[in-house]
Amino acid sequence: MKLRSLKLIHGSIIVSLILMLIPWSGWFKIAQPYWLALVIIYWSIEAPRQAGMLTAFFYSILLDVLYGSLFGKHGFSMVAMVFLISKIHKRLKMTSFWQLTLMIAALLLNDSIIRTFIDWVSMNQEDFSINLWSILTSILIWPWFKYLLDRLNHRF
Amino acid sequence: MWTPKNTNTLSQNNILTFLFLEIICVVLMIADHSAHITAPVRASISALTYPLVKVVELPQLAYQFINTTVSDQAALLNENIVLKQKLSQAQIDLLQMEVVSQQNTELRKLLHTKQLLPLKTTAAFIVNVNTGKNNHYVIINQGFNQGITVGQTVLDLNGVVGQVDNVTLENSHVILITNKNHAIPVEFLRTGIRTFIYGTGELDNLSLPEIPQSADIKLGDVLITSGYGGVFPPGLKVATIQKILDSPDKSFQRATALPSANLKLMKQLLLVWSLQDQPDKKNQLEGQSSQ
User: Fold this and answer.
1) Which residues have CB under 8 Å from B87's CB, separation 6+?
2) A13, A44, A59, A66: which to substitute to probe chain B, counting the most B Cβ within 10 Å?
3) How many domains, in total, are found in chain B?
4) Does any domain span residue B18?
5) Of B11, B160, B182, B254, which residue is least crowded by CB atoms under 10 Å?
């Protein structure tokens, strides 16, 4: 039982990494949902012991290598996000669907702010603009995403 | 895999794990400012990510395969004829070029200037493209194993595309000249005035904020790499002037330029080898890395 769910956890995270790598162009690239964060949020709420900060750290570092971004950038924001979830995950499990969605929007916004801040510090960029499109699409996709993962999770 | 054994200590360890991981991330980010430290780490981690990149490439390869097998013979024959025509035209041009380059070397000898070295290039294909607002880069299918090094110049058939920024085992990360954090030393082909071109974050726009007020510039002026700074070899076409503006305090002229390289529709790129790192030195490079 446990081994199977571990397989599902890591399998779904790897699929999300592949989704993140799909070469979109133009607007689609900008509005691409942050798949990895969605999967990691889901598992850190549903299975906090199997998928904790170390998992988040490990896969975010992989994402940094795949994207060629500053080493540890995604790791930093993702670990912070999972830490926040671990503080409130019991409450998150109990809240209504809409509240949960709002909470996730807030978490993703926070994550995006951290990453933009890191970019801002490390690259001396003058403008501090956050990609809100990506957060919006992530939130729109979240319900279906959760439904799908719930189905998979309960089947195994 | 990452399961903490004891459930009671989980909540206590939370903050410690959090702080520990965040400190690791900060250390990594600081270390990443010098490529020497993190390049080997990236290269070794990229061995893990290699299958993922292959999976993403798969549909692309399948499409190419189907395209070549399905496309009918008539189309291929047609293409063949067109290519032959192009080739003969290119050969004629080459004949003329030979005469011109001969004249050029003679003139250079007269002027006692150093020779432009012929460029050695290898072809690479684009695996992934990111042209988001702040960060313009592409990922190509050649990496550490092919001897690619950080700082190598990348061209397409029309001009300079960018330079290699990060190298992983089988892929490299090429920062485009339009990236907001990219600058390239150039000179005007017509007048020889030197300046810098900065990326703007738009694929069809480069900015030149520091042209001397006295310089004579015109619309359509061609900019080539000056070779200063030692990263880009001299004499490569970079951009053409699109618009000339005055800076608010009139201390410099400003201009915007259109990149010569077709940054929106590129598939195949050329990697330039400087004389120090030829591909045949690949084994030596690998030997250094394993130490």
Assistant:
1) none
2) A66
3) 3
4) yes
5) B11
Enter the ipTM: 0.82
Length of chain A in residues, anyone? 156
Tokens standing for B7?
Answer: 């459930």
Cα–Cα–Cα angle for A100, A104, A110, rounded to 5 degrees: 145
A52 touches A82 (CB < 8 A) = yes
Helix or strand (DSSP H, E) at B209: strand B205-212
CB B231 within 8 A of CB B153: yes
The answer on B54 and B20 residing in a single domain is yes
What is the distance of C-alpha B27 from the center of its chain?
A: 28
**Which tens digit of pLDDT belongs to each residue from A56-115?**
999 999 888 888 778 888 999 999 999 998 888 778 888 888 888 898 999 999 999 998
Cβ contact B1–A10 (<8 Å)? yes
Tell me if chain B has a CB within 8 Å of the CB of A105: no
> CA separation (Å) from B218 to B107, B235, B244, B246, B261?
27, 19, 8, 13, 20
pTM of the model: 0.64
B53 → closest Cβ in A10, A21, A80: A21
- Best A58, A65, A82, A116 member to test B by mutation, with max B CBs in 10 Å, is A65
Which residue among B3, B18, B53 sits closest to A50, beta carbon to beta carbon? B3
In chain A, where the domains are located: 2-155
Question: CB A53 to CB B21 under 8 A?
Answer: yes
